[in-house]
Amino acid sequence: MGPDPYDRNCPTRQLLDRIGDQWTVLIVGALSGGPLRFTELGRRVDGISQKVLTQTLRSLVRDGILTRTAYPTIPPKVEYQLTALGRNLSEPLDMLDRWARQHMSSVQEARDAYDAEHTPASA
C-alpha cells in the first residue's frame, strides 16, 4: 500500500502539514515572481516574525522547495527562490489563492449570517 496521509505516522502527513501552513502558502506565493532576500520576504509576508520566517525558510529549503543562495558580499546577501519542485507546488497554491479571492465575499456573508444567528441578543 502507498502513502496514506490519513495515517498519522505517514511522512506525507508531515508534507501536507508543511504545504498547508499559512506561512508556506504565502512564502511560496511571494517567491513565485522570482527570488527575494530575507528582508524582502519579511516585508512581503506581512505579520510573520523573523523567527517564524527563518524556521519556515529552513524547512522549505530542507524539503527541496526553495534554494538558499548566499553571496560573498559585504554586507552578506542571501536570496531565496523556488526550485522546480517549488514552482510545481506554486501552481495549486495559486489556484487556492484565486479561489480565496473570488469567494471571500461569499464566505464573509456566511460568517455574518452565522454570527447573527449565534450571537446572544444584547440585554
From TrEMBL:
What is the protein name stated in its UniProt record? Transcriptional regulator
Fetch the SUPFAM superfamilies from UniProt.
Winged helix' DNA-binding domain
* InterPro entries noted in UniProt: HTH_HxlR, WH-like_DNA-bd_sf, WH_DNA-bd_sf
Q: Where is the HTH hxlR-type domain?
A: 10-108
UniProt xrefs under PROSITE patterns: HTH_HXLR (PS51118)
Organism classification: Bacteria, Bacillati, Actinomycetota, Actinomycetes, Pseudonocardiales
Question: Which Pfam families is this protein grouped with?
Answer: HxlR
Keyword set, alphabetical order? DNA-binding, Transcription, Transcription regulation
